[in-house]
Structures are given as structure tokens and as C-alpha cells.
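Anyone up for a design puzzle?
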């Protein structure tokens, strides 16, 4: 290479090195000057609308990019010097443009906040917001939304934050901690983003929001919005359109789920007792609504692994939230459905059997249907039911269902009355197979085999489970058609004479007793079922039962009379003359015994 070219190349390299050295030497001098510090403070204030106070002169980081680092930075309201800062951060890092800094200009598009504290004020019972200034570039952009003004300038830029806290403006009470994430709004025409993570009420959370056209929303127009919230107790996501053209409204897809609604309610600090809540729940559908409520069409709801579909409406304009709609389930566990609102039963618990406290926080009116359902160990099909909740009242009614070979209607309700909270249960069944009923209630000895009907009406104050059996009152009655009583031999019974002593009921078993019909009625009260009338008749005999059945101790105190029955169409003169036979039945439900006696008695 010719010498002149070599000399020129050397001079170029030397000049470049000198330029770089001058830049490196100049940067600390430029960045540490009061004017640059002031300009950064002014630019932050111009963007946010707050009075920004920076700490000492910034430290300069040259590699891999130029950054100015400030300590103890605060953002305050103008005109309120004694008020605590709206935002303060232990460390603020500003990413600067190198060449602009050399020219004395301050431009940056990213700010990092380390260990910031944001103070928010309560604007309603459920919502908090920080104080929002009227001035600043961000406020001016939002005010000019919808007007014919340039939109290409910078808006908020990118703000990264880590180890932050969200606290109340009064008292600095922690709302959320360990907040990390990013907020981004580069230019007025670009989307706005917020995503991050943190700890809220002791649970880790993750959140994300994207608004495609923030200025359109500010101008009372519409914008596509996606939002998601995730935590272990609860997850939710929305994707659709949010509009402010006529107030506030939205339309889009919504999903929500919780592995345990009980845990989610505890976490949300809702006034509904956590002991009265269902387990897993998931919900999807198309949501439309406004600040007064939400309508969910094409809803898919799964409660405790019971999937259902239909339409729901949530109203928020009343004194308490109100939920109404229709749901169709393929299968439904009625016990687990009702357990969503009742405390677990325990023979030693002093908790209310059914807690009405949740009815003061929620109104409910649902129409339910199910192809198959289970309740009390009974399989039901073609179920139509309603669930209603209002202040001091809760009811679940099955208006129609097929079960046990017949038709069943049932209802359970709890009502707050002047004398206390009263629960009531009603069951009406016609055309049922009593053999199936006996099997469901584990009634094996002497179980009837016949078609018939059943009516149950029970009422009780809703106190604790220990007192419930003693305070329940009502009636139980039923009728049976032609059939039989299993494992009962009338001839063996008749062979026992008074004075022969006691014998187990199983001693008169074997075979079955054909009956032409039966009926019974019992009154419930004070832990005892008193038999008002109970008869079964065969072709030649009538069996009549009287006495009491204490269901608390599962004991028996009954009398049985056995009378000859006149044949159908017989004249009075042809009536049987054989004296009735009487028997005492005692012992327990599991081990009853009998004894022939001379005369009947009243227990």
C-alpha cells in the first residue's frame, strides 16, 4: 500500500479514537449538569402532569446504552406540597439518546422504576384510583381525543417497574405488593399496554390489558380490548370491543374459572360465608353489558363437574348483585348444588344447618333443567327446577321429575321470619315403586313391593345440627297398591301366643305376604314419629300399626293388631268372629323384637 494512503488511514483511526474519547469524556459532564437534570425533571412533569422532584445529580451509565439514574424521586400534585406523593420510587432510570444528550436535548422513550410506591384513593366500595392531574401531555392527548389534532407525538412511552407497592392514600395500607411489569403507550395513535405480576391478598397474580385505540375510547368511541387476570383461586379473560358512545358498554367473549369458589370467596373478602360455597366452577360465553349489568349468551357453565348451557344475566343496578337466567344440564348433582349454600352437616356442630347470610349479598332467579340428576341417593330424569334467592329467603324447587318409576315434585326453602329462620321441605311423589324407594333408604327387612304414593311436609327452625332432629315438625304419609311385604310370614306370627316371651322379628320371616293395599300417616315432632294411622290388608286379614318411632335413638315402641277381614261383598252376619290378636314391637331399627300380648296399648 502506498505510504500516503497508510498515513491517511492512520489519521482517520486516530481522529475516530479522539472523537470517541471526547464523547466519553463529555457525557458525564453533560449529564451531570444542573440544566440536564432540570430538563429531565421538566420532561417527566410535562408528560405526567405531576410536579416531579428528583434526588441528587444523576449517575451516568454508559454501557450498553446511555442511562441517567436518579435516587428518591417523587411525583406530587401541584398546589399540594404537604400531601404525600402520588408516586415515589427509590430509584428511577431514564434511557437517554446519546447524540441528543450531547446536543443538550433530552429525549427518552423508556423509564424504569425500582421499588415504586403508588398511592390510590377509594372512589367506590370496590375501586381505587390514583389522583389524576388535569394538565400534562397525557391529559392533553386524552382531552383532544376526537378533535382534528396531530397524533404522532410521544404519549407516555414505556414504563417498567419492579418490586412495587400499591397502597392507600390514607394510612399507606398495602393493597398489592411485589408488583413488576410494564406499561406502554408509545404514541397517541398506538395501542396502550399494561402487563405484570404481583401479590394481592396473599396470592400471586398475573394481569394483562391491551387497548388497541385508546384515543377512540377517550373520544367516546369504541376500541378492541383484551384483558386477562390469573391467580390460583380465580382466572378470567375478556376479548372484544369496549365502547363509550352511549355511556360504557362492552361486547366480547368472556371466560372465568375457579378450582374452589369457597377459596375464591375467602380471597376476595366477600361477605358471603366461605363455608357456604360450591367447589370448582368454570364459565364461558359471549358477554354484552354496561356498568349496570352483564348478559351472557351461549353460556357454558360447569359446577362441580356438572356441565350446563344457557343464558345468564347479572344486574348491578340494585342494592345487591342479581343473577337470573336459564341453564340446561346434562347431569346435575342436586346435593352438591344445594351444598353451595349450606354448611356441612355434623352431628356435633353448633353451626347453622343453612346460613342465610349470603342472601343479603346476592339475588338469584334461575330456571334449571337436567336430563339426569341425583338427589338423596335417588336417580332422577327429565328434571325441571328453579332456584331463588332474595334477602332473607332461599328456595330450590323441583316442579317436575321422573324418579323411582313415578313422578316427583319437591321443594326446599329457608325463610327469615320474626321468630327466626325457618326451613321447610316438601315432597310429593305419585306412581313410585316402593321397592326402589326401600332400596335407596337401605330398608331391606319387610320392605314393601308395590306401586304407590308418598307425601312429606317437614318444617324446623334452622339452628344447629344437634338440635335439628328435636325441632323438626311435620307429617309423612303414603299409600301402596297391591303388592307384597318381603320376608314376613303371617302364619308364623299368628302361632306366637301371649306369655311366650319375646322373639326377634326375623323369627317370623320367610316368604312374602301378599297385600291388596296399605296406607300410613305419621306426625313428626320432638324427635319422634307418632303413627297416626298405618294399615295393610290382605285378602283375609287387616294389619294395624300404632305407636311411636323415636328417630333420634333409632328405637321402636309399636303395637300391631291382627284382625280377620270380611271377604269382599260379605253381609254383616257373615263378618268374622275371631278375636283380634295383639303384638308389641320394640328394640331398635336394626334389631327389632316382638311379643304377643293380650290387648293393645298406647305408647
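Challenge accepted. My sequence:
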Amino acid at each position: 500500500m502506498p505510504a500516503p494512503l497508510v498515513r491517511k488511514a492512520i489519521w482517520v483511526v486516530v481522529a475516530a479514537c479522539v472523537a470517541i474519547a471526547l464523547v466519553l469524556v463529555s457525557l458525564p459532564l453533560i449529564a451531570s449538569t444542573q440544566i440536564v437534570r432540570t430538563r429531565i425533571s421538566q420532561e417527566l412533569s410535562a408528560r405526567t402532569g405531576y410536579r416531579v422532584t428528583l434526588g441528587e445529580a444523576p449517575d451516568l451509565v454508559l454501557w450498553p446504552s446511555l442511562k441517567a439514574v436518579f435516587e428518591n424521586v417523587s411525583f406530587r400534585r401541584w398546589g399540594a406540597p404537604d400531601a404525600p406523593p402520588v408516586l415515589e420510587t427509590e430509584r428511577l432510570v431514564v434511557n437517554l439518546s446519546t447524540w441528543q444528550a450531547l446536543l443538550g436535548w433530552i429525549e427518552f422513550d423508556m423509564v424504569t422504576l425500582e421499588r415504586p410506591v403508588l398511592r390510590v384513593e377509594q372512589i367506590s366500595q370496590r375501586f381505587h384510583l390514583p389522583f389524576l392531574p388535569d394538565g400534562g401531555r397525557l391529559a392533553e392527548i386524552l382531552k383532544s381525543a376526537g378533535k382534528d389534532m396531530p397524533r404522532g407525538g410521544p404519549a407516555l412511552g414505556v414504563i417498567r417497574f419492579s418490586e412495587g407497592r400499591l397502597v392507600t392514600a390514607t394510612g399507606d395500607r398495602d393493597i398489592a405488593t411485589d408488583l413488576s411489569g410494564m406499561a406502554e403507550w408509545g404514541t397517541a395513535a398506538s395501542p396502550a399496554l399494561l402487563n405484570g405480576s404481583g401479590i394481592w391478598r396473599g396470592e400471586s397474580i398475573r394481569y394483562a390489558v391491551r387497548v388497541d385505540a385508546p384515543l377512540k375510547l377517550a373520544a367516546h368511541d369504541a376500541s378492541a380490548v383484551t384483558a386477562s387476570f390469573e391467580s390460583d383461586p380465580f382466572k378470567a379473560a375478556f376479548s372484544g370491543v369496549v365502547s363509550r358512545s352511549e355511556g360504557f358498554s362492552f361486547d366480547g367473549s368472556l371466560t372465568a374459572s375457579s378450582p374452589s369458589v369457597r377459596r375464591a370467596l375467602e380471597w376476595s373478602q366477600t361477605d358471603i360465608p366461605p363455608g357456604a360455597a360450591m367447589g370448582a366452577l368454570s364459565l364461558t360465553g359471549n358477554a354484552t353489558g354496561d356498568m349496570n349489568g352483564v348478559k351472557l349468551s351461549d353460556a357454558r357453565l360447569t359446577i362441580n363437574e356438572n356441565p350446563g348451557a344457557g343464558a345468564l344475566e347479572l344486574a348491578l343496578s340494585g342494592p345487591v348483585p342479581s343473577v337470573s337466567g336459564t341453564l340446561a344440564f346434562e347431569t346435575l348433582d342436586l346435593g352438591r348444588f344445594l351444598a353451595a349454600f349450606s354448611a356441612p352437616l355434623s352431628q356435633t356442630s353448633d353451626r347453622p344447618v343453612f346460613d342465610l347470610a349470603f342472601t343479603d349479598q346476592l339475588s338469584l332467579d334461575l330456571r334449571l333443567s337436567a336430563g339426569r340428576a341425583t338427589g338423596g341417593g335417588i336417580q332422577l330424569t327429565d328434571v325441571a327446577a328453579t332456584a331463588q334467592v332474595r334477602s332473607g329467603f332461599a328456595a330450590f324447587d323441583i316442579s317436575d321429575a321422573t324418579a323411582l318409576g313415578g313422578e316427583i315434585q319437591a321443594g326446599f326453602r329457608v325463610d327469615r321470619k320474626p321468630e327466626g329462620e325457618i326451613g321447610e321441605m316438601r315432597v310429593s311423589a305419585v306412581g313410585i315403586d316402593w321397592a326402589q324407594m326401600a332400596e335407596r333408604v337401605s330398608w331391606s327387612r319387610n320392605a314393601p313391593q308395590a306401586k304407590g304414593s308418598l307425601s312429606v311436609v317437614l318444617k324446623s327452625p334452622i339452628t344447629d345440627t344437634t338440635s335439628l332432629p328435636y325441632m323438626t315438625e311435620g307429617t309423612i304419609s303414603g299409600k301402596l297398591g297391591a303388592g307384597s311385604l318381603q320376608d314376613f310370614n303371617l302364619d308364623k306370627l299368628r302361632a306366637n301366643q301371649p306369655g311366650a316371651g319375646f322373639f326377634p322379628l326375623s323369627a317370623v320371616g320367610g316368604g312374602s305376604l301378599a297385600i291388596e293395599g296399605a296406607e300410613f300417616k305419621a306426625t313428626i315432632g320432638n324427635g319422634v314419629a307418632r303413627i297416626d294411622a298405618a294399615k295393610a290388608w290382605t285378602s283375609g286379614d287387616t294389619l294395624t300399626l300404632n305407636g311411636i318411632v323415636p328417630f333420634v335413638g333409632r328405637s321402636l315402641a309399636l303395637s300391631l293388631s291382627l284382625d280377620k277381614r270380611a271377604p269382599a261383598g260379605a253381609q254383616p252376619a257373615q263378618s268374622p268372629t275371631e278375636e283380634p290378636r295383639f303384638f308389641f314391637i320394640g328394640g331398635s331399627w336394626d334389631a327389632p323384637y316382638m311379643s304377643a300380648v293380650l290387648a293393645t296399648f298406647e305408647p
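A detail worth pointing out: Confidence is low (pLDDT under 50) at residues 11-16, 18-23, 343-348.
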